[in-house]
Amino acid sequence: MQTILKETKLESSLIYIRNLNNCPPSYLNDPGRKDFFEIVWLKNEAPLHALKFNDTDVKGDWIYLIPPYRVHQLNKAGKKGELISFKREILEEEDKEFLLDLFKIFNVQGEFSCLRINQESATGLGSVYTLLSEEYEKGKDNLIVVKALLKVFLLKLIQIKEHEFTDHDINQKRVYEFLMLLESNYLQVRNTDFYAGKLGISSKRLNQILKDKLDKTGTQLIHDRIILESKRLIIHSESTIKEIAYDLGFSDRPYFSRFFKKQTGQTPDEFQKQAQNHVKSKLNTLI
């Protein structure tokens, strides 16, 4: 039975809320963490990623939206702010327009998305977060209220970024359906014909839609998902690269290595070494 998490074990939980200063190592190191969406709200802090602009005054409120199966974790040591982690199962699957918008702001095909929020937005979010946190602390009997308040919080995040996507047309819904099909089938099926058939459209039309909405073809998105899982396993599992290759459906390690290098410019061994050095030198941050 999945409930509100009041201890630190994630496997049987749907949601986990903590102040960043009170987030135990047992959460950070829990293998079940890979299944959670994470919202990391830094308050009056500098960002944790390189900015594309030269701004010497970058302290403020930053919200990191980190999807499941991320490769890098977030080093929160000494940071002020809040953490909300939740599984997809806590969301209402019937509300597909909401889920599509949510997956977009979480950048499900990448490492993370980041929003810088102004004081007005921070105040509005803060009001909802306070209610959410209070209901969460009451325990498992309040799961229905917690779910409702979480959705309000997420809707407010979507509104902050709504200028990037405002239309809910049929093609956006097809993108959502494709991403859901991909998540369930990418290990077994790696051709766009299968996904197009499930959506009732041609592969050519599916690629047109994906290129328009996500700027990538179906094949590119399938490959991105395989690479994302490959990186996660290389960093966070104890499996050898040969074992990872077989787990991901590759016939042998050389084939997997060629695929990985073609997509990333590195061999799996080179990536593994770089990731290990990154963790040692930068404490596993996002940058």
Task: Using the coordinates shown, work out and report the CATH topology of the largest domain.
Answer: Jelly Rolls
What would CATH call the architecture of the largest domain?
Sandwich
**N-to-C SSE string, H for helix and E for strand:** EEHEEEHEHHHHHHHHH
Structural class: alpha+beta
How many separate domains?
2
What does the largest sheet look like?
6 strands, mixed
CATH class of the largest domain: Mainly Beta
Assembly of the depicted chains: single chain
Mean pLDDT: 83
Radius of gyration (Å): 20 Å
N-to-C span: 36 Å
Enumerate the strands of the largest sheet in spatial order, edge to edge or round the barrel: 1-2-5-3-4-6
Point out poorly predicted stretches.
52-56
Could you estimate the helical fraction of the residues in percent? 40-55%
Q: Beta-sheet strand percentage?
A: 5-15%
- Helix count, DSSP H or I runs of 4 or more residues: 11
* Shape annotation: globular
Number of strands: 6
Entry summary:
The protein has 287 residues and is of the alpha+beta class.
Can you tell me about this structure?
This protein has 287 residues and is α+β, with helices and mostly antiparallel strands. The protein folds into 2 domains: 3-164, Jelly Rolls, CATH 2.60.120; 170-282, Arc Repressor Mutant, subunit A (Orthogonal Bundle). It is 49% helix and 13% strand. The chain has 11 helices and 6 strands. It has helices at 25-28, 96-106, 119-137, 143-160, 170-185, 192-199, 203-214, 218-236, 241-247, 253-264, 268-282; strands at residues 3-4, 13-19, 36-45, 60-66, 81-87, 113-117. A 6-stranded mixed β-sheet has the order 1-2-5-3-4-6, covered by helices on one side. Helix 3 (119-137) runs antiparallel to helix 4 (143-160) and helix 5 (170-185) crosses helix 7. The protein is globular and about 50 Å long. Residues 52-56 have low confidence and may be disordered.
